[in-house]
Amino acid sequence: MSATLLKISCPDRVGLLARLTSFVAYHGGNLLEVHQFTDPLSGWFFARLAIDTGTLALDLPALRKAFKPTADELQADWTIRDETVKMRVVILVSKLGHCLADLLWRWRSGELPIDIPLVISNHEDFREMTEREGLRFEFVPTDDKAAAFEKMRELFRSVNAELIVLARYMQILPREICDEWPGRIINIHHSFLPSFVGANPYKRAYDRGVKLIGATCHYATAELDEGPIIDQEVVRVEHFHMPDDLLRLGRDCERLALARGVRYHIHDRVLIHGKKSIVFRD
Amino acid sequence: MSATLLKISCPDRVGLLARLTSFVAYHGGNLLEVHQFTDPLSGWFFARLAIDTGTLALDLPALRKAFKPTADELQADWTIRDETVKMRVVILVSKLGHCLADLLWRWRSGELPIDIPLVISNHEDFREMTEREGLRFEFVPTDDKAAAFEKMRELFRSVNAELIVLARYMQILPREICDEWPGRIINIHHSFLPSFVGANPYKRAYDRGVKLIGATCHYATAELDEGPIIDQEVVRVEHFHMPDDLLRLGRDCERLALARGVRYHIHDRVLIHGKKSIVFRD
Amino acid sequence: MSATLLKISCPDRVGLLARLTSFVAYHGGNLLEVHQFTDPLSGWFFARLAIDTGTLALDLPALRKAFKPTADELQADWTIRDETVKMRVVILVSKLGHCLADLLWRWRSGELPIDIPLVISNHEDFREMTEREGLRFEFVPTDDKAAAFEKMRELFRSVNAELIVLARYMQILPREICDEWPGRIINIHHSFLPSFVGANPYKRAYDRGVKLIGATCHYATAELDEGPIIDQEVVRVEHFHMPDDLLRLGRDCERLALARGVRYHIHDRVLIHGKKSIVFRD
Amino acid sequence: MSATLLKISCPDRVGLLARLTSFVAYHGGNLLEVHQFTDPLSGWFFARLAIDTGTLALDLPALRKAFKPTADELQADWTIRDETVKMRVVILVSKLGHCLADLLWRWRSGELPIDIPLVISNHEDFREMTEREGLRFEFVPTDDKAAAFEKMRELFRSVNAELIVLARYMQILPREICDEWPGRIINIHHSFLPSFVGANPYKRAYDRGVKLIGATCHYATAELDEGPIIDQEVVRVEHFHMPDDLLRLGRDCERLALARGVRYHIHDRVLIHGKKSIVFRD
User: D21–C17: do the CB atoms touch at under 8 Å?
Assistant: First the structure.
């Protein structure tokens, strides 16, 4: 059963969900899943409706057109997408490959229904691992950062990147890129934010003597490690765990948190609102 | 802001949520929270709508009356309740008081908005702990089980018990009682069901050498430990944990799982369907 | 079986554990538990030996005297204690009673083998809850902080406080008190340190949109929330959890982390080393 | 720093640890790590000593010879191994490759210091994935089970298998193989044992409506799913998780629990005692 996904956020008002569900029902759509959240503090409304595509009387463009007047009146941010059309995801990696390897496995096994038109790295280490999957790998050195990011931007555009995943890519993307793909760049930070923003979080976690370490999957913005958080994962550590052990244990946190974050995003389960994200988990 | 809670389960059909939300909107109701689940395997629909009571044009009896024709047509199981009317909860306990103490604290501090018209035990141990809270305590010895349960049934009726909580009450309630309060008896079992159904679960967990132990909050039915599960909690254990340690660690699992289960129930967040439960967690 | 506890930390050297265990064996002691940790980075050695008291040829003062020459030579920090002698624990609380209630229950039920000679608060709210347990309650208002802390210091001394527990006591103890009871003041902070040091952590966690919140049990030092961490606890939260929900969920984290921290401390399972703590968990 | 590992279990007696540590000290060995556990219920003693190899006056064969008289007298089960000598691990897989892929990544990235002389499967699906890593793959069809297992036994022998890992190998090994590699066959079962022993655990977990699912890493014995448990992992599930979702979420539990179990084993951190295992985690 294939689904059409309607994602929407707007100021709350009485009867909103009734209007949305009536709209869907009017066009014959059978609802597979409905998630809704009304934030009592901000007065904002968020929803995700998964509609059985086969029951809809209209095709996607027509449905969008039919919905536009309502959406305009509601001053809504919204998308209507066909879940079966795979998102085009570009992955960036540096010298640590566990997140890349994990994403590639989930993609290859069908768990993660995405297209990966391109993997970019500032090192050559994972060219073979990428190319043996039949995927394109581009080496973009970052000695000259301005040139590197300009090159990258062109690459993103040339493959029509819909999502950019920083899979332990140890460079901060410039504001121009963050602005061109807002809410479409996902980063994995190797700490439980807001603890240990910035460099060397495992070393600092070790020095502080914390008893839990973690990883944070969040949208990248121009502010370092400040973007909306999608998911976090933690693992218990003890005094006998040296910095290398934290790296090892942290890797599994990173893989899990990143994979979940990407999954939620590509299924339109994340709605960004200011500095926070609403996540309708599955 | 006080809420009116509409809880409903029925066979799925197109436009169901539209009908429910339109019904609410028609009567002026502003939706505070909407949870919905359509089970694709059973074809069943479940929902919980929290409506801002102050915005409703009808009072509760009138709202129920207005909803009845729709509910009948949908062949629905449903309730409409005022969340501010506290449920009447009877607690049963034997010789282990941690769950009782935990519930009493949550009640006294206002975390658990319930009325406790009665605490029953087959031992006198917790009379003082109960009575000093200003609550009624009844000692019902279980030497003669038939008499004991007959006495208990009268007590439940006399206080209009809406929920019965077995807070480590080490007796199995007879079928008659389970049938008179279906879906309204909550038990805490001291294992991670279906592991270790029955007696001495911690000892058996120790003997088996499991690396995680747990507790299960579920509805009591006439079948031992087979009722719908509401929540479960686990904790990691190691080889150095002796049976007494498992008891100690398990107590915290039990307290948490039971408190959550009771909380979900009294806020109408649990819908029972056959042997399973749909839980709209908060 | 009652235990004598030898706790020691000193610079590492070859044969250290052999010397300790031989010392114990020489005096007839049967080892019940041995925990040892050699920190490869700091070159420091930590151990906790639990000895079956009944098998020891010497009484405690004689055992201490016999051990002193060795300890001096090793330049060790060490204690030898009888585990059956209950530690004298003073509890401080303000207006939130969940941690106090939790500790009282664990004490009353025998789970926490301590003496509680005194409960202090800057509010009268929990006098009744304390006194009905037969415990002494002192109200020490903090309008005049200098006078309050002077009064408190006298109280601590007068009851021979061995451990001071800040059970959501919302005042920072002055340096003089921290210095007089070093490594013997335990605080529960209502965030996952080092996230949200200082005031209003739940509100800030809400604003940041984290997906996990937590609590940290640590030794209080003169630096706010910087003392050695003993234990931490987290719970997953979602976008629909309002600040009040975080408070509610956090309370259970706080109770668990604090109870474990106190437990580890009174059983001599914690060794402090600089800003960190070695915890031999049970 | 390379380590020599002494692993030992024997009946407890006074002075045991003193004898072991003195033996090590006598031969110049500096202890890097010491784990010890005395089971008060069985009266059994277990220890693992990691000795800095460079400080030992004897080489491995000489050290073993020197230790033998002590071990004999103690009636001990024991091994002395060089941690830097990689264990030879054969992996078996059927049609689900997530555990194999995970182990291969951990091996290739150096996280798991093992040799993999052979991967065996009753299907051809993962030949390419294995061979592109430069590893040998053998297809052993199981239409004729007796022949298949005879073939497998020969293969195990021919590569001097020290550990056999059933990475979702959906066949039960016969008693002869279990007996020939006792305590050296590790299985991952896709449920939280002892829940759902046997086939289709996820489906049965779904039917029972549990709120947590998990995976169990254990030693395979001739009794199905009854061998000593090494590690377990769980994940929370909700009513909206269909059987396919449980499979997906369970895969991550399986990967983590299996990887940890293998890791503990190859570093001699697991001691088997009857139906249970002592695990000195890192």
Answer: yes
How far apart (Å, rounded) are the C-alpha atoms in residues A27 and B242? Answer: 62
What is the interface size between A and D, counted as CB pairs within 8 Å?
28
Contacts of D17 in chain C (CB under 8 A): 17, 21, 31, 34
Across chain C, the runs of DSSP E, i.e. the strands, are 3-11, 30-39, 44-52, 77-82, 87-93, 114-121, 137-139, 163-166, 185-189, 212-219, 229-236, 270-273, 276-279
D278 neighbourhood in chain B, CB within 8 Å: 239
pLDDT of residue D104: 98
Rounded distance between C-alpha atoms, residue C227 and residue A254, angstroms: 28
Question: What's the pLDDT tens digit per position in D223-242?
Answer: 878 899 999 999 999 999 99
Per-residue pLDDT of chain A (282 residues; tens, 9 = 90+): 799 999 999 999 989 999 999 999 999 999 999 999 999 999 999 999 999 999 999 999 999 999 999 999 999 999 999 999 999 999 999 999 999 999 999 999 999 999 999 999 999 999 999 999 999 999 999 999 999 999 999 999 999 999 999 999 988 899 999 999 999 999 999 999 999 988 899 999 999 999 999 999 999 998 878 899 999 999 999 999 999 999 999 999 999 999 999 999 999 999 999 999 999 999
Look at residues B250, B256, B212, B211 and name the one whose alpha carbon lies nearest to residue B231.
B256
Q: Which two tokens stand for residue C91?
A: 């509890």
Query: Is C282 considered catalytic here?
Result: no
Q: For residue B170, what pLDDT band results from cuts at 50, 70 and 90?
A: confident
pLDDT of residue C226: 87
* Superfamily designation of domain D3-82: ACT domain (3.30.70.260)
Contact (CB, 8 A) for C215 and C188:
yes
Query: Distance between CA B229 and CA B215 in Å, rounded?
Result: 11
Q: Which of B52, B82, B144, B225 is catalytic?
A: B225
ω before C194 within 30° of 0 (cis)? yes
Q: Which two tokens stand for residue C145?
A: 């902080």
Give the CB-side neighbour count of residue C152, counting CA atoms within 13 A. 31
End-to-end, the C-alpha distance of chain D in Å comes to 17
The residues, ordered by sequence, that sit 6+ positions from D226 with a Cβ below 8 Å of its Cβ are D197, D275
Catalytically annotated residue among C102, C225, C231, C268 = C225
Q: CATH second-level architecture of B87-279?
A: 3-Layer(aba) Sandwich (3.40)
Q: Residue D36 and residue C32: Cβ atoms within 8 Å?
A: no
* Euclidean distance between CA atoms A162 and A115, whole angstroms: 10
Nearest to B17 among A15, A34, A40 (CB): A34
**Would you list which residues of chain B are within 8 Å, Cβ to Cβ, of chain A?**
1, 14-18, 21-22, 24-25, 28-34, 36, 38, 40, 55, 236
- Inter-chain CB pairs, B–D, below 8 Å: 81
Burial D150-166 (b: 16+ CB within 10 A, else e): ebbbebbeebebbbbbb
Can you tell me the ipTM of this complex? 0.95
Q: How far is C10 from chain A (nearest CA, A)?
A: 16
The pTM for the full model equals 0.97
Q: Give the bridge partners for B79, in sequence order.
A: B7
Domain boundaries, chain A: 3-82, 87-279
In this complex, do A17 and B31 lie within 8 Å of one another by their Cβ atoms?
Answer: yes
| Geometric angle at alpha carbon C112, from C108 and C115, rounded to 5° | 75
The CA distance from D12 to A3, in Å, is 64
Asked if the domains C3-82 and C87-279 are classified in one and the same CATH topology, the answer is no
Q: Does a cis peptide bond (omega within 30 degrees of 0) precede residue D243?
A: no
Percentage, residues of chain C above pLDDT 70: 100
Residues 6+ apart with CB under 8 A from B235: B212, B213, B214, B249, B250, B252, B253
Which H or E element spans position B89? Answer: strand B87-93
Maximal CA-CA distance, chain A = 62
